[in-house]
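call fold(seq) -> C-alpha cells
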Amino acid sequence: TCSGTPTSCLSCFKGYALNGDQCTSCTDSQALTCSEEDAAYSLSCNLGYAVVISTAVVPPTSICTACAANCFKCDINGPGKCDAGQCQTGYVQQTGQTTCTLCFNQCPQCSPDDLGICLECGRARFKNTAGLCVSCPSGCKQC
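ret:
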C-alpha cells in the first residue's frame, strides 16, 4: 500500500521489507519477511523452512533453512526435522522420530506406530477389515 504518491510505501508484499518509504526485496528467496535494516536477515520463512540465526559471526545472520523432506513446519524442532503433526499428506512422523516417513499402500494418513495401518483413505477408497485402503469399484466417487 502507498500514501500520497505511488513511490511512498506504507506496507509491502511478502518477500519485501519496508525500508523508510520503500519496499526492499529480501535477499533470501525463502523469506516471507526480512529486517528493515538488513534485507539479508530473514525474520520469517515460507512453509517447509525455518529461521536459523547464527550469532557466531558479527553481525549475526539469519537465513531460512529447509525442514525435513515432506514437512510443512519445523519452527520448534529446527531445520532438517519436522514439528509434530506437520507432515504432508501421505507421510507420518513415527513415534519418537522428527522426520516424515511415507505411509504404506498410498494411505493419505497412517498410524505413527504402523505405516501399514491407514487412519484415513480419502476419496474413492475405503478401509477394509485389515486396515488397508482399497479402491472403490470403477466410476465410484465414494463407497
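The radius of gyration is 22 Å.
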